[in-house]
Amino acid sequence: MLRMCFASLLFFTFGIYLFYPNVSFADTTFTSSSAIEKLALANNNVYTLDIASSPYFFTSGIFVSKNVTINVDPGVKIFLGQNRNIQFFNGTFNAIGTVENPITITSDGSYYGQLFFHSVNGDVTANLINVNLINGDWCSIVGKSKTVYKNVTINMCRTVPVSISLISGTDVTMDNVSYIRWNRNPVINTTFYMPIPSGFDNLHPVNVVIKNSTFVMDGSPIFRMVDQTKNTFDPTLVNIKINNNNFTGKVKNASPFQHVDTDSKKVIIDATNNYWGTSQGPYVNGSKDKTDGPVLPSNINFIPFLTESIITLPEIPPKIIKECCSSIMFFPGVEGSRLYKKDNLNPDGEDQLWEANYSSDIVELYGNSDGISQDGIYTRDVIERTNIFGENNTSYDIYKKIIDNLKSLKENKTIIDYLPVPYDWRENVDDIIKDGINLENDQKMDIVKELEILAENSDTGKVTIVAHSNGGLLSKALIHELEVQGKQDLVDKVVMVASPQIGTPDAIYALLHGLNFGFPSQIIAPQKYNRKLAENIEMTYSLLPSKKYFEMNTHPVFFDESISGSTNLYEKYGENIDSFSELKDFILGKLDSRINPDFDETSLPAVGNETLYNKAYDLHEILDNYNLPENIKLYKLSGTGIATNKAILYKDRKLLGKQIFTPYLIKSIYGDGTVLNKSSSVGVGENYYFDLYNYNLDNKTIFDHANIFEADPIINFINNIVGNKNEDVNYITTNSPDFDNLKSISIEMHSPVYMQIYDSDGNHTGTINGKDDDGNDVVSIEENIPNSKYEILGESVIITLSGDREYILKLDGYDEGEFTLNINNYVGDELTNSQNFENLPASADLLSEIKINTNGEITEMNLDTNGDGKMDLNIKSDGTIVDLNEVVEPEIIIPEPEPEPEPEPDPVRADDNDSLPASNGTGPVIIPEPVQQTGGFVFLPQFLNNPNPISVTTIPEPVVQEQITVQILEPEITQIVIKKPIAIAQVKKTIAKTNNKNVIIKKDKSVIVNKTSLKNSQTASAGDSLKWKFNLIDFIRKIFKRK
């Protein structure tokens, strides 16, 4: 949870990002923001920007804090530098032009600007008469000052034309102010933003007069008041007069005032003598007597009102329509927009819920059984670069390059404007279009309305939509709604990149097991939280394979008969899922009647939400069969060459002698790592394919579905389409590349063991241990090997790699148990070879380093069994186990003792808790009681480290002796007297089941067994290691049985 505290709007640092390719600044340039203040101080506190030196270019803006006067002559043009604005905290600013020679103040509107009048300790007076404010963001921010705007035109303001802070002492008059082509930012979405700051002192009145102006109603509020004092201000001190104005446009039932009556203390606003767009005038909210005019809160005095307009609108020159180029609306994909909520403990702060920094963030994103989220969650921005914090948590660029490219297209005048659209990706795309997008402070973004604004300002009068992943479904839903409203002509092109039009199997695995998909695997968000989130959000069901998906004769789920002993899935569904209805039955558990598994049991499939499934079905019935209108050209680009999940196989595997239900992933090379080409290329439109495989190898990059918009060919492809060009783009073709002979490797680990893999260049794919901002342990995923993918599914980890390359695989155990390692080799989509190392002993001390050759095979496996940094065992591909320490194979001669008859003892069975007394490793070991030797191998005490061979003589009959003498024959004789049973240490960790029980005694005091080759199989198995341990202890007991 990322906590961000925001101060009052007035205390932001404001700036503007500017670019003027067609303007010459040859006359006067100021590089210091305080330059004209210093000039004024040197000239009786007055300085004039005269027409003779115009235009003026202020590379650092203008900053005035002294009591000086700055005058601007008629006709002067002022251009502000990058991230710069005009700020007055004291003094006087007189920009007084004439009708014939107005003053122009301009920027490119990329960031805050252009005017800021606010007094802290001094007094500010600002007079703007006959002034044009062009291409700003927050075009004018007025605080504690005496400010007059008369005959002011605000053109192309991106966020808010005027923000008036209703702080004590503010005195503002707006007389005949016009707003032309206001390109709103939906976060504020109002003409006059009027916060009442917490610094309201209840001593000085606020006076705001707005008159002789025209406001066009388009469904958005004109005046928005926000109380930041928590109802502590005196409303009688706030004097707002809105008189003799003209309200036109869509006035019927419109709400020009927002939040002015939501506080317990209401400001009475004088809004008399206005024309409200109809001779009937407005009506009061809740009144039965409605009119054709707008609806007003009860604290607005609007009587008397004018029955006709008395104001003439300023003439706007007719728009010239060009062939190129259209403004752009951009839709990100799943999880590509940040989600927030207000911090209940800090009214000025907020919690970032996505990207999630804690599991609790994911919990707060859960929906209920109807898919409805908790209140108060909103979005604001598209994720250009991830901001998950903590040690080793590397940030990733997701949409930075595409956003930078759109900015560049605007700056070089290729397009007029662009709008990245953040949205709550948990929701159904149809609801997003029809209900709007939840923004901060209960604001809503209407995508249709925003597209209309983009089209109005566009050179072509149209908009090009660029969409990624789930954004493709959103764009189709938007076009469908535009066609319903008769507005389809507002769009000329749609570019869908990696869009799962008819679904993706990964959505199945996310819903049933919590598989991460669609977003970089930067932080291992626990599968159990991912699965619970997926269960009750509509996006999951919208991305499930639809009915049209199964028309391609594909099977996203398989069942192996081996699971019949643990579940009835095979019995109920057969070998595979081959229809939409059968998939729905399986996801909802209709035929097998399963219940949701425990929260932590992510290997077992969950049960889906039928209500949300049905709603998604209705959506796909529309979108899957919907063709865009003929006037809209559709481009579909598919990423390909990255191993992508196409199916899941459920089968049993052995673990500690038991059959364990396990999901396995089946891959296809024809996809981008998340979306298969058969889904992204379906339907009408022009298809293009981006060869991710070769692009990554050639450029040593790691692009896939999640960050595909960071690849240069994608940017070049989009610029071609936007610019009506027909240029070739490297690695992008109209025909799908042939990968039928392409080799790839899938490595599966089923165990309590971490996997890390390195290529020949030292690139790493695997986990990284780190800390979050609170010092908690977190595990990050790194995928730096080109075309690699790291996935977690249930109890398994899967790493996918390109073939024909050498790799080093390192294993690191983190718990006791057994592990199984599978190496699967593919050519195209065909599985050609598998190596399976099954039921090998694992422990928290286990380390291993494994070489994978260019054939995708393991020729040997080195194991460090005790974590001392030294490899102890070498396991060959045929299953042979070799000790890497200096070892001897003992031969033992036991002289025949004088026999003494004893009755045959009853056999004793050792259990898991049996133990044998251990030698102290020095001098003779005395056995106080007779020991029966029954034949077979004698296991020596671990302190025998002599490198010479030892011969063994087996006693053919039971004999009893008081002492047994063991002699090592060459080169010297060592006599050891044994008078108590011998302990065999570390049996649990080092003994594996084998067909040939040749004893090897190691210097580290452990006993291992040399394993025979499995010549006709690629499976090297340790068998049931616990059962073998029991047999071994039985065997020892029989040798050293106490009488």
Automatic annotation (TrEMBL):
Pfam families: LCAT. This is Uncharacterized protein. It comes from Candidatus Nomurabacteria bacterium RIFCSPLOWO2_01_FULL_33_17. One of its GO terms (molecular function) is O-acyltransferase activity. InterPro entries: AB_hydrolase_fold (IPR029058), LACT/PDAT_acylTrfase (IPR003386). Gene3D superfamilies: alpha/beta hydrolase. Residues 892-925 are annotated as: Disordered. SUPFAM superfamilies: alpha/beta-Hydrolases. GO terms for biological process: lipid metabolic process.
